[in-house]
Amino acid sequence: MKRYIFLTLGIALSVLFVVAAYLESGGLYEALYYQRDFSQEMYELGVYPTLALLTVAITWGIAALYYYVINSVYFDRWWHWGLMLVVAAIATPAACYAVSDAALASAGVDYAVQLGQFEMQHVIWAALLFIVASLSMRWWSTNCRHTPFPQ
Question: Per residue in 87-113, is it b (16+ CB within 10 Å) or e — as a string?
């Protein structure tokens, strides 16, 4: 029963993260990084919802990769899970940077410095969402279900 509760909570938190990106104020993104011109441009281009969807997809995808594809008894320690957390925390900002940079370039503006600073928050969001995804889906893994925390 608790596995379904964790899965439901994980999905709900991820959906709330995406819904928050649709808010008029930029949601959680502008709460952690706000620079007037840059944030206005990102909001007007409608990049925030795309970044939120990309963040959720990458973090849940990497968690699924760890728990169901790798799923090895030789790769089931907390430091292996931590390695996957680091991968998620690097891959997510890299992908979001590429999407944001392409959107800003198509608009003819250059905010390279602000974009680099803005992407640092994706490290935080990726880590948090990877933990949420891990706690949501680990219960059905055959070998890695005890990672990172014993049941």
Answer: bbbebbbebbbeebbebbeeeeeebee
